[in-house]
C-alpha cells in the first residue's frame, strides 16, 4: 500500500446496489479506500438496507450515510428494499425505484458545504452517470462481476436487435471472438423487452457503464488480463480484486455468518486434505424436487465426502419439494457427508484444507472465493453471468470442469457422480493443480506491489487529484 498523504481527504459518494453479492465487495473496496486515508465517504442507502453497512461503520465510524426512503414501484411488494427479499426478478423494479432518488440526491449534493468530488456506484445503477454529470463529478462504475462479463454485456446492450432471438451470438469484437448460444447469454439481456420503458431505462444504464469516467473490477490481472485490456480501450480500468482477501471482508463475513464456530469445522478437521466436495449454488438458488433428488443421488453414488448447503423455501415451496432433502438420505450417507440448511460460512469452508472441490453455479463471488482458496470448480452455470464465468474458468483457465448447465436442468445422477468422484481423485487432476497455481497469483495480486494493490493505490491517488483540481 502506498504511504498515506497528509492532505485532507476528498469527499466520495458511494451508491451500492441492494443485493448481498453486490454490497459486500463494495464495502470491502470502501474499507480499502479508508485505509488509504479516504475517510470522507458518504454511502447512499435506504432504511432497511442500513444494517448491512454496520460492520463497515463499526470499523470506520467516520463514514457518513445518506438514508433515503425506498421509492415504491407497482411490481414490488411494499417493504421490499433488497433483492434477497424478492429474488432476481426484482432487479428491474428495484433499479427503476432507486432511480427516483435522483432528485433528493442532487438536492443533498447542492446543499452540502463540502460536496463529493466523485461517485462510485454499482454497475446496475448506470443511470447514476447522468446524475453525476448533473453534479459535475466523475462517476466510477463498480463491477461485482468480471471484465469478461462487462465486455459481453456492453456488446449486447449496444445491439438490442440480438434480444429478438438468435441461436448463437458471435462476439467478434472480444478477445478470442467467443460465441454463446442464446440460452447462455446473461439473463438480464435475455429478459430484456425492447420498447418497454423500464427495460429501455435499464439498457441505457448498462450502456452508461463503460462510458463512465472509470471502471473498478473485483477481479485481477492474472484472472482475466485480456478482458481487462479490452475494457481499457473504452475507459479507465482499476482491477482491485479479489476483494475478499483484503481485510474487512473477513470481519464482515464473520458477523454475517452466524454459523462461524459451526460444527462443520469440527467435522472438516477430521477429514483428509482435499477430500471434501463443497456444494452450494449461491445465496438464492432454490432447487426443485427433481434437482434435489438428482444431486442427493449423485452425492450418494459418488462415495465422496461432501458438505451440501441447501437453501430452504417457504412452507408452500417445501410442500412442492423445493429445497427438500430426500427422506433417509442423511442417514444413508452419515459420517461421509453433511447437509447444512440455510446459510453456511462459505469463505471459511472453502479455505479449509479438507475441501478439494466446489460444485458451484459459478456466481462471480463464488468464483473468486474458490480461486483464492485454490479449490477447483465443478461448474453448473444456471443464469445471469454464470455461463460467461464458467467459460473463463473451464475453457480458458482450465481450473474447473463443467458438470451440468441450466437453472432447471436435472442432471443424470450417475454421470454427475462419476464427474464428482473423478474430480476429487487427487493430484492427478490437472484442474486442481492449475487452481492452486491461480491462487498463488491471486495472493501476489493483493500484496504490496501486486497488480490489484497498485490499482487500489492508483484509484486512491486519482481521488486525491480530484480534490486538488476542484
Ligand atoms: N454465501 C455464503 N453462504 C451461503 C451461500 C452464499 O457465504 O450459504 C455467499 C458466498 O460466499 C458468496 C455469495 O454468498 O460470497 C454468493 O455470491 P455469488 O456471486 O456466488 O452468487 P449469487 O448469490 O449472487 O447467485
UniProtKB/TrEMBL annotation:
Record-linked InterPro entries: UDP_glucos_trans (IPR002213)
Cross-referenced Pfam families: UDPGT
MF (Gene Ontology): UDP-glucosyltransferase activity
Keyword presence, Disulfide bond: no
Keywords of the record: Glycosyltransferase, Transferase
Family, similarity comment: Belongs to the UDP-glycosyltransferase family.
Stated name of the protein: Glycosyltransferase
Species: Erythroxylum novogranatense
Amino acid at each position: 500500500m502506498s504511504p498515506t498523504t497528509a492532505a485532507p481527504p476528498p469527499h466520495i459518494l458511494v451508491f451500492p446496489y441492494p443485493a448481498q453479492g453486490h454490497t459486500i465487495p463494495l464495502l470491502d473496496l470502501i474499507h480499502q479506500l479508508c485505509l488509504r486515508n479516504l475517510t470522507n465517504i458518504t454511502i447512499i442507502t435506504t432504511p432497511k438496507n442500513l444494517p448491512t453497512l454496520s460492520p463497515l461503520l463499526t470499523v470506520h465510524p467516520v463514514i457518513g450515510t445518506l438514508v433515503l426512503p425506498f421509492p415504491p414501484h407497482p411490481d414490488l411488494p411494499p417493504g421490499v428494499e433488497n433483492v434477497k427479499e424478492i429474488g432476481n426478478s426484482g432487479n428491474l423494479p428495484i433499479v427503476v425505484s432507486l432511480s427516483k432518488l435522483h432528485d433528493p440526491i442532487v438536492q443533498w449534493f447542492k446543499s452540502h458545504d463540502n460536496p463529493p468530488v466523485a461517485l462510485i456506484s454499482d454497475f446496475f445503477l448506470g443511470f447514476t452517470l447522468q446524475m453525476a454529470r448533473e453534479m459535475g463529478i466523475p462517476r466510477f462504475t463498480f463491477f461485482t462481476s468480471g471484465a469478461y462479463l462487462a465486455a459481453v454485456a456492453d456488446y449486447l446492450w449496444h445491439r438490442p436487435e440480438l434480444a429478438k432471438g438468435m441461436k448463437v451470438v458471435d462476439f467478434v469484437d472480444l478477445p478470442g471472438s467467443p460465441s454463446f448460444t442464446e440460452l447462455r447469454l446473461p439473463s438480464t439481456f435475455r429478459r430484456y423487452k425492447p420498447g418497454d420503458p423500464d427495460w429501455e431505462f435499464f439498457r441505457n444504464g448498462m450502456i452508461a457503464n463503460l462510458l463512465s469516467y472509470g471502471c473498478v473490477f473485483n477481479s485481477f490481472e492474472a484472472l482475466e488480463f485480456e478482458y481487462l485490456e479490452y475494457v481499457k480501450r473504452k475507459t479507465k480500468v482499476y482491477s482491485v480484486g479479489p476483494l475478499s482477501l483484503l481485510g474487512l471482508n473477513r470481519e464482515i463475513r464473520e458477523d454475517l455468518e452466524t454459523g462461524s464456530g459451526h460444527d462443520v469445522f469440527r467435522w472438516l478437521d477430521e477429514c483428509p486434505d482435499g477430500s471434501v466436495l463443497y456444494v452450494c449454488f449461491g445465496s438464492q438458488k432454490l432447487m426443485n424436487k427433481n434437482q434435489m433428488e438428482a444431486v442427493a443421488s449423485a452425492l450418494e453414488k459418488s462415495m465422496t465426502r461432501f458438505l451440501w448447503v441447501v437453501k430452504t423455501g417457504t412452507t408452500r415451496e417445501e410442500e412442492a419439494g423445493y429445497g427438500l432433502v430426500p427422506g433417509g438420505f442423511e442417514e444413508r450417507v452419515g459420517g461421509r457427508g453433511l447437509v447444512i440448511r440455510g446459510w453456511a460460512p462459505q469463505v471459511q469452508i472453502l479455505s479449509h484444507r479438507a475441501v478439494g472441490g466446489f460444485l458451484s453455479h459459478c456466481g462471480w463471488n463464488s468464483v473468486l472465493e474458490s480461486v483464492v482458496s485454490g479449490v477447483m470448480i465443478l461448474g453448473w452455470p444456471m443464469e445471469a453471468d454464470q455461463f460467461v464465468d464458467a467459460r473463463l474458468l473451464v475453457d480458458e483457465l482450465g481450473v474447473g470442469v463443467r458438470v451440468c448447465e441450466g437453472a432447471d436442468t436435472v442432471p443424470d445422477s450417475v454421470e454427475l457422480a462419476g464427474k464428482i468422484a473423478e474430480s476429487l481423485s487427487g493430484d492427478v487432476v490437472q484442474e486442481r493443480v492449475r487452481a492452486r497455481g491461480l491462487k498463488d497469483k491471486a495472493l501476489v495480486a493483493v500484496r504490496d506491489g501486486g497488480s490489484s494493490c497498485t490499482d487500489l493505490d492508483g484509484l486512491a491517488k486519482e481521488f486525491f487529484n480530484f480534490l486538488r483540481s476542484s
